[in-house]
């Protein structure tokens, strides 16, 4: 992204009174009159729209009416707030532009204009709006325009604010990545040459200044866009919920409507998730810069490195949605949780109040097994199969695309002795469990079972190898942290110097970061797959009618194996983090004389700042609470499925 694109965005936004202009000047009286005129236009249009929609809203069930009214209110408030923000927060915009320009000049950053992205986004927006008009005008006639004409402008305001936020955050990300690139160059320079030039210190001062400017820029973005992002996330969540509900209720009767629903869900999903991922990526760049600074400290000691580390920690970037919550990858999980919960409730209300049955989505599929499933079972089964496929493909691609990370991981995890017995035992257990499962269901379903699930054996074995890689790596990490703890507690006076131990702590934290880079997404997929598989198999055991004893034993064995593999690796992650946390207690129990040596406080600070954190693709931290969240999801699903079975079984 570049200032050329931002200038274009601000010019177009200024024309619609939703952003200030690019030139720095005071708000004039005609601009205020024009802005208030836009507010009046939106308000009048919404009032007319509500008047014509009221009779349709009266037909909705209560929960659906609440969702629809909240959706309309969110869009209206967002539009009005956008226009007023363009008037009242003009100085903040120009302060943000100044900071971005200063960092660009300091680092000679060259940016592409990306005009094509703006044009393509606008084309896609108006294309799907035109398609929507074509579909609903054929269904509703002139009534459609009476009810929804004002939404063309409202939706464009929403889209434009979302795009403006994307451009600004992308510019911040480019500048953070440039600082990361500079520090990586310094690190490689010191590792290879051991250079100690004074120019290095001067350059660090410039980097610190840029970090402060960028943090101020992030704060300005939070001030300008904080409420906007809250509105955007809320609106996108409700829209996805409404259209998913519509898809489930309609089934696949009207292919044109289904295409429209898919396009709308795709549009709002991409809009919301892209900006959330960008915010998270900036936070991750801040964490990367901090990690590189710690690596520099291993090679060069001095106040300048400590000052850099302190500056980074005090100016760490974080994005907030009007200070209600931090915007990171976990926000996406919160959105999904809200969508799934409300969708289930809305479908339940619809089934209770309507005598007609929902059109099964499964009729669209011709696969024998899928065609017997009800909508929610079908959705879970498809997600389960897709996750397993993605996991297998990702595992293969990771070995190709992340060779440097693998080499770094293996270099840091050096072993004095080898033990292959656990791998042999795990293989034997895997084979026994899946051979028994295959025999039971082959006798039950015949050769069709082999046709449908033969390839899945290879997929599951690939998953097993991944589980064992996680297990082996985490066991080595746990052993190394345990050795450090034993070293610190050795007669209250460690035989190894604190500087050496600090270097080992930095190395282990770097190893954990590499582990997260390699195994973050696989761990997320494994946890999700395990939760869904346990849901499916427990449903077969408790909800389905009269399963045979052999089937029950087979299902229990499979889910027990899957649960043990996942839970044990989660507990290993928690044990590594817990053992690393105990190092601080071991340090405080050292002899008093040792506590007065030089750099002791720096050592304690290094321990506090380098506690390992395992993350599932940065969506959430992996610890014991992860297991409870999995149980919560499983129990909730089973309760819902029992209720669904009860409703479907009623005449």
Automatic annotation (TrEMBL):
What are the UniProt keywords, alphabetically?
Cell membrane, Membrane, Receptor, Transducer, Transmembrane, Transmembrane helix
What InterPro entries does the entry give? 7TM_chemorcpt
Membrane-spanning residues where? 33-52, 115-136, 156-176, 224-244, 250-270, 326-349, 378-401, 422-446, 458-478, 518-538, 550-571, 627-644
One GO-annotated biological process of the protein: signal transduction
Q: Does Glycoprotein show up as a keyword for this record?
A: no
Similarity annotation? Belongs to the insect chemoreceptor superfamily. Gustatory receptor (GR) family.
Instruction: List, alphabetically, the PANTHER family matched.
Output: GUSTATORY RECEPTOR 8A-RELATED (PTHR21143:SF104), INVERTEBRATE GUSTATORY RECEPTOR (PTHR21143)
What is the protein named?
Answer: Gustatory receptor
Organism for this UniProt entry: Tribolium castaneum
């Amino acid at each position: 992204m570049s200032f050329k694109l931002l200038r274009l965005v601000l010019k177009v936004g200024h024309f619609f009174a939703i952003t200030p202009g690019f030139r720095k000047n005071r708000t004039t009286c005609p601009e205020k009159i024009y802005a208030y005129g836009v507010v009046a236009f939106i308000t009048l249009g919404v009032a007319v729209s509500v008047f014509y929609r009221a009779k349709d809203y009266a037909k909705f069930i209560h929960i659906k009416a609440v969702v629809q009214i909240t959706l309309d209110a969110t869009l209206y408030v967002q539009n009005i707030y956008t226009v007023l923000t363009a008037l009242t927060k003009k100085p903040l915009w120009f302060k943000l532009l100044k900071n971005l320009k200063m960092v660009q000049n300091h680092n000679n950053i060259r940016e592409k204009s990306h005009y094509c992205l703006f044009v393509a986004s606008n084309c896609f927006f108006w294309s799907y709006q035109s398609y929507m008009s074509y579909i609903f005008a054929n269904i509703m006639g002139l009534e459609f325009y009476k009810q929804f004409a004002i939404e063309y402008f409202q939706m464009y305001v929403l889209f434009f604010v979302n795009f403006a936020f994307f451009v600004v955050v992308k510019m911040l990300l480019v500048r953070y990545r440039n600082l990361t690139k500079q520090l990586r160059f310094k690190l490689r320079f010191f590792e290879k040459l051991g250079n100690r030039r004074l120019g290095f210190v001067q350059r660090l001062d410039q980097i610190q200044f840029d970090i402060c400017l960028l943090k101020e820029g992030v704060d300005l973005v939070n001030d300008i866009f904080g409420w906007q992002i809250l509105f955007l996330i809320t609106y996108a969540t409700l829209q996805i919920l409404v259209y998913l509900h519509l898809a489930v209720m309609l089934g696949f009767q009207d292919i044109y409507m289904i295409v429209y629903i898919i396009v709308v869900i795709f549009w709002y999903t991409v809009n919301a998730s892209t900006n959330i991922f960008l915010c998270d990526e900036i936070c991750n760049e801040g964490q990367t810069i901090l990690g590189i600074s710690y690596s520099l400290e291993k090679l060069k000691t001095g106040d300048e490195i400590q000052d850099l580390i302190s500056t980074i920690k005090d100016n760490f970037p974080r994005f907030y949605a009007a200070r209600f919550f931090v915007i990171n990858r976990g926000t996406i999980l919160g959105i999904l949780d809200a969508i799934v919960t409300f969708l289930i409730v809305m479908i339940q209300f619809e089934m209770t109040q309507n005598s007609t049955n929902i059109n099964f989505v499964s009729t669209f599929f011709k696969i024998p097994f899928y065609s017997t499933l009800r909508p929610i079972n079908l959705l879970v089964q498809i997600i389960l199969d897709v996750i397993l496929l993605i996991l297998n493909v990702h595992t293969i691609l990771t070995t190709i695309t992340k060779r440097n990370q693998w080499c770094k991981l293996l270099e840091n995890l050096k072993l004095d002795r080898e033990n292959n017995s656990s791998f042999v035992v795990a293989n034997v257990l895997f084979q026994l469990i899946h051979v028994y499962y295959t025999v039971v269901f082959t006798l039950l379903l015949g050769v069709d079972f082999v046709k449908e699930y033969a390839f899945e054996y290879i997929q599951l074995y690939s998953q097993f190898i991944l589980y064992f890689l996680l297990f082996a790596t985490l066991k080595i990490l746990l052993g190394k942290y345990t050795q450090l703890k034993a070293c610190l507690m050795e007669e209250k006076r460690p035989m190894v110097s604190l500087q050496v131990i600090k270097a080992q702590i930095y190395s282990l934290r770097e190893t954990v970061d590499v582990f997260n880079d390699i195994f973050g997404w696989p761990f997320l997929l494994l946890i999700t797959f395990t939760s869904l598989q346990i849901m499916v198999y427990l449903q077969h055991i408790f909800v389905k009618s009269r399963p045979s004893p052999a089937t029950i034993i087979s299902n229990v064995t499979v889910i027990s194996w899957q649960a043990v593999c996942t839970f044990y690796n989660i507990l290993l992650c928690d044990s590594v983090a817990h053992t690393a946390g105990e190092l601080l207690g071991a340090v405080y129990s050292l002899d008093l004389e040792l506590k007065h040596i030089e750099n002791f406080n720096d050592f304690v600070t290094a321990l506090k700042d380098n506690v390992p954190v395992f993350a599932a693709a940065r969506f959430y931290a992996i610890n014991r609470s992860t297991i409870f969240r999995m149980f919560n999801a499983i129990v909730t699903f089973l309760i819902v499925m029992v209720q669904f079975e009860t409703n479907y079984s009623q005449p």
